[in-house]
Amino acid sequence: RISSKKRVTIVRHGQSTWNKIGRIQGSSDESVLTEKGQSQAAMTGDYLESETYDHVFQSPLARARQTADIILSHSKSPPSERTILPSLREIDLYGFQGLMKEEGKARYGDLYVTWKSRPTEFELDGHKPVIELWHRASIALETILMSDYDDILVVAHNAVNQAMISVATGLPPTFFRKIPQSNAAVTVLEFQPHSPDIPGDYPGNPGGRPLVVVESLNESPSTLSSPGGALDDERPRVVLLPSQASPEQTSKVLLGANPGESPGLRVSEILAAPSVIDEARDLAVSLPSSPQVSMLSVGNERKAWESAVTSAARSSGDVVVMGDSPTLSRIFLEAMGSGLPPSEQHPSSSSGRGSGVSSDCF
Fold first, then answer.
1. Are 110 and 149 in contact (CB under 8 A)?
2. CA distances (Å), origin 76, targets 58, 272, 304
3. Is the CB of residue 10 less than 8 Å from the CB of residue 189?
4. What Cα–Cα distance (Å) separates residue 98 from each residue in 1, 56, 101, 287?
5. CA triplet 215, 165, 333: central angle to 5 degrees?
6. SS3 for 2?
7. Fewer Cβ in 10 A, N or C end of the chain?
8. Are residues 57 and 82 in contact, defined by beta-carbon separation less than 8 angstroms?
9. What is the greatest pairwise CA distance in the chain?
10. Of the ranges 63-77, 107-121, 193-207, 263-277, which one carries the lowest mean pLDDT score?
């Protein structure tokens, strides 16, 4: 458990020499940033230049260190200290490391097919890399959250960043590759302490775990907003609001942290599951924008997500999607374009943010 709010900005390194040629890196440390990778890191540095970080945790690998150096060289107030965290290194791929992808296919045959199609079952040199990665990512995340710092920058790698995001939002190793992190992309997680006023075992906050908000997800240099780090507040947003949220949490998300001082949402429509339609109507009456309320199509998450995005784009206003946590979790994964294994349901109080239409989930 945490005692104060933590904001963790997670960045993947820019394009590396081995990324460019298709050589399997894993946790090897023989590749460095390409010219393109340096440019990507600089664009991310421009995007984050106004952010103030208490501390930086970075992978020990050169490509991550170079990326952190470039990002911090653009910062208006860079932190004075950094911590090299070995658990932030990329996934350990043992005998695969250093091979060109075609070499891996030729040399390992069916084993390579397992790696690509069923990665949680993949075993190499007596190790299960994905299972080990999830364990190591949980250690890294715990180290970061238990530190004395509240606003933290983490610079690491695609797979380990995916694993940390998944661990934070309660997703198991079967979600490997489902939350891809592009070169120099930014994901921001906010961890809010569990409140004794909120029941500790409802879906989305089991056992009094911190409430996790994914403030932004995989914002790459090609989709980042204007230089200077300010998010484009004019973009319409899709907000996923679980029915278990308390009135105080709902008010904070929809009206702003400090109504009258911080901006709230411009809600034009609420899409609600049948089970919470009355609650949605009550909410609509309480909002200054007097949004319309429509029934959400439950059972087809892709259609529900497309409806929400279409509504936001059409109205140029924010759209709130209300339902239980498992339903919103599935819609959230559709928003990321990753899909969900049919038998999987998981608690979620998280969010994604896109480029044309933002998506936030509370």
1. no
2. 19, 43, 41
3. yes
4. 39, 29, 9, 57
5. 75
6. coil
7. N
8. yes
9. 64
10. 193-207
Catalytic machinery residues: 13, 90
Angle at 179 between CA 31 and CA 209, to 5 degrees: 115
3-state secondary structure of 124: strand
E-strand stretches of the chain: 6-12, 55-58, 82-84, 151-156, 186-192, 211-219, 237-242, 267-272, 292-295, 318-323, 358-361
Task: Report yes or no: 235 and 356 within 8 Å, Cβ to Cβ.
Answer: yes
Listed residue (332, 361, 347, 4) closest to 168, CA to CA: 347
Residue with tokens 């979620």: 348
Average pLDDT over residues 126-131: 98
Tokens describing residue 355? 């480029």
In this structure, the dihedral spanned by the alpha carbons of residues 319, 166, 64 and 335, taken in order and rounded to 10 degrees, is -30
Q: In whole angstroms, what separates CA 133 from the centre of its chain? A: 17
Tell me the pLDDT tens digit for each residue of 13-63.
999 999 999 999 999 999 999 999 999 999 999 999 999 999 999 999 999
Cβ burial of 121 (10 Å; 0-12, 13-18, 19+) is exposed
Report the distance separating Cα 262 and Cα 251, nearest Å.
Answer: 12
Name which of 325, 333, 346, 319 is nearest 242 in CA terms: 325
What pLDDT score was predicted for residue 180?
85
- With contact defined as beta carbons under 8 Å apart, do 322 and 271 qualify? yes
Tokens of 41: 């890191």
Q: Quote the crossing angle between the two packed helices 110-117 and 101-108, to the nearest 10°.
A: 120
CA distance 148 to 83: 13
Residue whose entry in the numeric block shows the structure tokens 């500790």: 200
At 162, give phi and psi (nearest 5°): -55, -45
Q: Quote the crossing angle between the two packed helices 301-315 and 325-335, to the nearest 10°.
A: 70
pTM value is 0.71
